[in-house]
Write a structure and sequence with these properties.
77 residues, 38% strand, alpha+beta, four-stranded mixed beta sheet
Length: 77
């Protein structure tokens, strides 16, 4: 979720990272990103807002169930 800070030249973006372990256990980590807009003019601020919305306004999921390999690390084939 994107919202303006109390300071008008900052955006606060709240998102989460969800980690799913190999055994199916889920861990959720909250993430806060603060974007400073003080050095940008009005047109640049709208562009920064759009880019930040596309990048961070979602839940990031890391699924570690598929990363488990049954081969030893030294075998390439």
């Amino acid at each position: 979720m994107i919202r303006h800070q109390y300071h008008p030249n900052q955006l606060r973006i709240d998102t989460t990272i969800k980690i799913i372990d190999a055994d199916g256990a889920e861990t959720i980590a909250p993430v806060v990103v603060i974007v400073g807009l003080s050095k940008a003019d009005t047109k640049q601020q709208t562009n920064i807002y759009k880019i930040a919305n596309r990048l961070f306004n979602k839940e990031f999921i890391l699924d570690r169930r598929n990363l488990v390999s049954k081969k030893p690390w030294w075998k390439f084939w």
